[in-house]
Every structure is written in C-alpha cells, then in structure tokens.
Amino acid sequence: MANDTKIHEAQITAYLERLARALRRLKNTTAFALKLQPLQLEILLFLLHAQQRKITVNFLAEELEVSEPTVSDSLAALVRKKYVVKYTSPEDRRIRFVSLTASGKKIAQKAEGKLFPLAGMDPKLLEDLSRALHELVGELFAQSFIRHARICKTCHFFSPASENAVGHCTLLNKTLYTKDLQSDCPDHAYARIG
C-alpha cells in the first residue's frame, strides 16, 4: 500500500534510537576524558551556543529537562573548575546568570570537535539530512513531543518558499536555503500553532 507509513515510522524510530545511543556514548566518553560529568559537558556545550543570550539556572534546567537542583550542582562543579561564572542581574539582584569563562569556552570547543564526526560524509547527504531533520523537529514540536525548538519552521518570521529555497525570514528579509536554517535562533519568536 503506497500510503502505509508504518514501515518508515519503524525504520526512522530505529535509526533515531541508534543515533541517540551513539551520541550519548560519544558524550559520555568525551566528558570522562575531559574529567567532566555528562551533564556538565551538556551545560558547557549549551552555553557555547547560547549566542549572547543571558542564561539563568532555571532556563538551563528547563532546556536540558532536568531539575534545577541537579543543574545547580553541576554548575557549582563547573564554577570550581573555573569553566563557568555566575553573575547577578543589575536589574534584579534575585536573578543569577551563568556564562562560560575563556577556559570553559576552550574545553567546550574541544569537546564539540569530538562529538559527531560527520566531516568526511557526502556534502549533499548532509544537506538533505539537515533539511529533513529540521522538518522532523518542526513536526515533533507541533505535536508537543519537543518542548523547545527555536528553529526556522516554528518561527513567526518564517514563511515557506517555492523552488529550491526552503523559506524566507521576514525578520532578516532573507531567502533561506538549507545552509541558512537555524537550529537555535537567538531571534526566534514562536508562531502560533493551530
């Protein structure tokens, strides 16, 4: 039957599970090699890509889907290692932000280089995969399986395009191709769904 998607759903689920296990194993191996716990490495990598956003402990906990005390414990260890600094908001002294130090940025960049060795793969395959995963994340977000997307497809400023372009960003007034798609846009504004 041409419209039966069950076989593809099973295949995709199996592939994603294998990729998730491989990524978890790479993260664990990399973290331990750098004398970090896996959550500490995740925090460093998240902060590396925070793109000038001010990150609070609460935001980190929500983003990484762990409890605030768990994130606080990991942050305390990262502060002791001098990879992260905490600072108080000048507007509201109850709010504490976290950011990478220079050595924290260096260690995060070192770790990132070891995580998923895709550099030798066919560029067209990587482009197609990137575009397909962008679509998949957008669909899973729309169905509430993913809590935070911040990708082009879920953004108020995104409009689909025709021909070889993926879409158009009205904020930047720019045609978007696969290479332009954002995986964590700092200017993202969620579009209304439904």
Description:
- This protein is mainly α.
- The chain has 2 domains: 110 residues, Winged helix-like DNA-binding domain superfamily/Winged helix DNA-binding domain (Arc Repressor Mutant, subunit A); 58 residues, no CATH class.
- The chain has 6 helices and 6 strands.
- It has a 3-stranded antiparallel sheet. Strands 4-5-6 form a 3-stranded antiparallel sheet, with no helix packed on it.
- It is globular.
Relevant terms:
mainly alpha, 2 domains, 6 helices, globular, three-stranded antiparallel β-sheet, Arc Repressor Mutant, subunit A, 11% strand, 48% helix, 194 residues
Quick overview:
By secondary structure, the chain is mainly α. It is built from 6 helices and 6 strands, in the order ααβααββααβββ. 48% of the residues lie in helices and 11% in strands.
List the helices and strands and how they pair.
Layout: H1 6-33, H2 38-48, E1 55-56, H3 57-64, H4 68-80, E2 84-88, E3 96-100, H5 102-115, H6 123-142, E4 158-160, E5 167-169, E6 174-176
Antiparallel strand pairs: 1-3, 2-3, 4-5, 5-6
Largest beta sheet, briefly?
3 strands, antiparallel
Question: What's the count of strands?
Answer: 6
Into which percentage range does the β-strand content fall?
Answer: 5-15%
Give the proportion of residues in helices. 40-55%
- Indicate the low-confidence ranges by residue numbers: none
The CATH homologous superfamily of the largest domain: Winged helix-like DNA-binding domain superfamily/Winged helix DNA-binding domain
Shape label: globular
Going across the major beta sheet, what is the strand order? 1-3-2
Q: What is the CATH domain class of the largest domain?
A: Mainly Alpha
Give the second-level CATH assignment, the architecture of the largest domain.
Answer: Orthogonal Bundle
Mean pLDDT comes to: 89
Q: In DSSP terms, counting alpha (H) and pi (I) runs of 4 or more, how many helices?
A: 6
Number of domains: 2
Helices and strands, in order, run as: HHEHHEEHHEEE
Counting helices, strands and paired strands, the structural category is mainly alpha
